[in-house]
Amino acid sequence: EAGVVQSPRYKIIEKKQPVAFWCNPISGHNTLYWYLQNLGQGPELLIRYENEEAVDDSQLPKDRFSAERLKGVDSTLKIQPAELGDSAVYLCASSLGQGYTEAFFGQGTRLTVV
Amino acid sequence: DQQVKQNSPSLSVQEGRISILNCDYTNSMFDYFLWYKKYPAEGPTFLISISSIKDKNEDGRFTVFLNKSAKHLSLHIVPSQPGDSAVYFCAASPSGYSTLTFGKGTMLLVSP
């Protein structure tokens, strides 16, 4: 069974440029998460989807970050414009659904903003 | 305010000995706890979990202990192997919700 797939693995952009990350969750997983991991820290939730509905986006900086999960499968996270402080690893995870807490993570996208 | 705390940034253990990783939490609503393991340049991998109705869960070399009154859990690895060298994250979730709150992680180094 394929795991959570993220692309790209690495991305280097100049500040003020836009960037997008893509995630394909495990087949059949209704819940999809985007987490942010800064160096030396644990993952922090940005947004959680139940199917195509964003049910928890309280930690998403909505002035520059946006996300979508069309058809309740793949998801895209976008930053526009990127700032130096956005340099981090962006992790996508999925789980079976509400009440199933074990989340399976992708390999992450390491973003460097210069 | 960190709701899940892993106060030891690193731990060194010799191969064959026991590794004990600790985690404290402050949110009384947490009732499901998980440990994840992370190798460099990879995403976290689920290791073991425990519900608040239990005080111990065992899976092979890995055992998680939960002390609800102290709001403390620990992961025991016996015997430790060099391949266990990784960063270990403690995570917690409230009942009925699936969003995890993570600690900062503990880097375990198991030397031969």
Question: Would you give an account of this structure?
Answer:
The complex is a heterodimer of chains A (114) and B (112). Chain A has 114 residues and is an all-beta fold. In chain A, 0% of the residues lie in helices and 48% in strands. Chain A has no helices and 11 strands. Chain A has strands at 5-7, 10-13, 19-24, 31-37, 44-50, 53-56, 65-68, 75-79, 88-95, 104-105, 109-113. In chain A, strands 2, 4, 5, 6, 9, 10 and 11 form a 7-stranded mixed sheet that branches. Chain A starts with a strand and ends with a strand. In chain B, a hairpin with a 4-residue loop joins strand 7 (62-67) and strand 8 (72-77). Chain B has no helices and 11 strands. In chain B, 0% of the residues lie in helices and 56% in strands. The model of chain B has no long low-confidence stretch (mean pLDDT 94).
Helix content of chain B: under 10%
What is the ordering of alpha helices and beta strands of chain B?
A: EEEEEEEEEEE
The helix tally of chain B amounts to 0
Q: What is the total tally of β strands of chain B?
A: 11
**Gyration radius of chain B, to the nearest Å?**
13 Å
Low-pLDDT residue intervals, each spanning 5 or more residues of chain A? none
- Overall structural class of chain B, as computed from helix and strand content, comes to mainly beta
Please summarize the sheet with the most strands of chain A.
7 strands, mixed
Features:
heterodimer, A: 114 residues, mainly beta, 7-stranded mixed β-sheet, 0% helix, B: 112 residues, 5-stranded antiparallel β-sheet
Write a short abstract of this structure.
The complex is a heterodimer of chains A (114) and B (112). Chain A contains no helices and eleven strands.
How is this fold's topology laid out?
The complex is a heterodimer of chains A (114) and B (112).
Chain A: E1 5-7, E2 10-13, E3 19-24, E4 31-37, E5 44-50, E6 53-56, E7 65-68, E8 75-79, E9 88-95, E10 104-105, E11 109-113
Parallel strand pairs in A: 2-11
Antiparallel strand pairs in A: 1-3, 3-8, 4-5, 4-9, 5-6, 7-8, 9-10, 9-11
Chain B: E1 4-5, E2 10-14, E3 19-25, E4 30-38, E5 45-51, E6 56-59, E7 62-67, E8 72-77, E9 86-94, E10 101-102, E11 106-111
Parallel strand pairs in B: 2-11
Antiparallel strand pairs in B: 1-3, 3-8, 4-5, 4-9, 6-7, 7-8, 9-10, 9-11
